[in-house]
Each structure stands twice: as C-alpha cells, then as structure tokens.
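dude i think i finally got it to work??
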Amino acid sequence: MVDLKKEIILVAREMGIDKVGFTSKERLGATPPSGNLAGVLPNARSAISLVVAFDRPAMRAFLAKEDQLAHCKDQSLAYKKLKDASIAIANLLKERGHEAASPFANFTWRRDVAWMTMAPPISHKYVAVASGVGWMGWSGNVMTPEYGAAICLSSVVTSTELEPTPLLEGDPPCDTCRLCVPVCPSYYISQKEKTSVHIGGRAFYLHKRASNLRCLVTCSGGNGVKGPNARWSTWSHRVLDLPGRGNDELFERRVLDYARGPGGELLSRAIELEKYGAQNWEQYEVLVGLLKNRAFSCGYCMLICWPDMDDRKKNYRLLLTSGRVIKDRGTSVNSRGI
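look at this
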C-alpha cells in the first residue's frame, strides 16, 4: 500500500494540508469509545490524520486585540482545506475499491452519552496522536512538534490497511508550561488535577475536565472575562456572574439562565448547536452560516501553545496586556489596563 499512501499524501499536500499521518485500528484499541473507528465505518482498518496549522501573525494580532477577523478568516480557510482534502481522499480510496468515510467531529456528537459530554463519533485528536502527528497535551489539545497546538484536524477512516506512521517519541513539554490554564476565562482547565488516555500503547496525561459548558460559554463569546475586575478579556465584552473553579452545577444553571434571558441569543444558539449538532460537512456549513456574522472570541488554550517556550511566553504577555473589549464601542476597540 506504499503507492496508495504516496497518492494520499500528494492529494493532501496539493490541497494545503500541512501534515499527514496514518494509524491502524489496533493502535486505538485502548482509547475511549470515540477512538473506535468502527463507530463511523464498521469495516474500518485504518485512518488518516490531516493537520492544518493556523497563521502565526494572525494569531498574535488576535491575542493582542489588534485584529479579530484575520484569524477568524484563517480558521475558516483551514476548515475548508480540511473539508476539501478529506472528501478528495475519501473519493480516491473509493475509486480504488475501498470503503471510506470523512466524519466532521466539531459539531457532531454521539447520542448515547449525556448532554454536554460532547463525545464525537470519532475523535480527530485520538486519530492524530495514534498517527504520530502529535502528542496529547495538558489542555486536551493535540500538540505537534512543528506547530504546537495551534492547529485544526480532520480524519479519513477507511477499510483498507495502511502502514501506520511511527509514533512520536518523548513527551509534550506541558509540565514546565501549562500556560493553557490561566488563559481560560471560564476555569475549564485544571492546574493539577489530571486524567489519562491510552493511545498506541502509552498513557498521555491531561487535565481533569470540568463541565464542557465552561469551554463553550467562553469560545462562543457568551462570557469574556474571569471576573468583573479582570484586566483582560476575550474578544467578547460580556461579563456574566459565573462561579470560578469548581461548582459546575451552579455554573451550568447560571449559563442556561443567561441563555434564556435578555441578550442571550448568541449563547442560546451556541448551546443549541452543541446539543443538536451536524452529521456531515454540509450540515456544518449550514450551521456556521447561521453564525456568519458572529466571529468567535477565544480558543486561547490552543493559540498560545507554540512549540518554542519563548514564543508561548510572548503570546501569554500579549494576551495579558491586551486590555478589555468595552461594550458599545465596537469589537475593534479595546481599553488597555482596565
């Protein structure tokens, strides 16, 4: 299957994919159910991981509150590259007589789990780590040696057997960093409490997750600060009265109350998207179209995480000195030092 792998890599490169990896069904055998390839293709034997890295100048302008839309547009372009490449590779495999599926995971959730568990039918993260393109980092994001965690992912699952890419050696440098923790306004990421996931015969340690609603409320722009007196915000001006670390039950109750109240339309829509989801790329594009004028506001746990520690520290300083977005002044205006 060497020639087929070369064809797949060539198609991916031609369509703007930055990194490609391959894994077997067996490497994912010890992962949670979202690592089971048969969940999306009963006869699956292999999977292909596709990676697109975000533009660095656009990320830094986003973190510094100099430009919001450049990164948002870059992220949309990255997902388009993944969509087009995933479909093209799946079609190539089908033309060669193999079964193939290209599931979209970011708004597609399994129905056999509780609400807000947000477990996808296939985890692009698990596939990526099992394909040797990165490690599982403390934040729960995949961290690559070339791009850090500032990436987006997709996968193609197939019935043919493809030789796996060698797994990455060593560990992600999270124990000496963990800057993902203080950049999360909703206290989603724990500093010390951990859990683990087993992929490819080894354990990766990541933070013990709080309620996924903590991540959603910030990344959707529903809340922009850690507290009313915070010196910096996301690109959202919203200041919700939410509990800090711990007490997820109260946090969820208050978020749902805000979503039902005045000015809660965006938050309500974001929760609705997570609840009902999209089953394929076409449905995803419809859902995103509903929010086409609502640029997202966070994702900082990914964006600050570059491979070099000095770069991560610089990204962290940019965010901490970026000030706050002030209501009624427009999202392009920020007040530094408030």
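The mean pLDDT is 88.
im so relieved honestly
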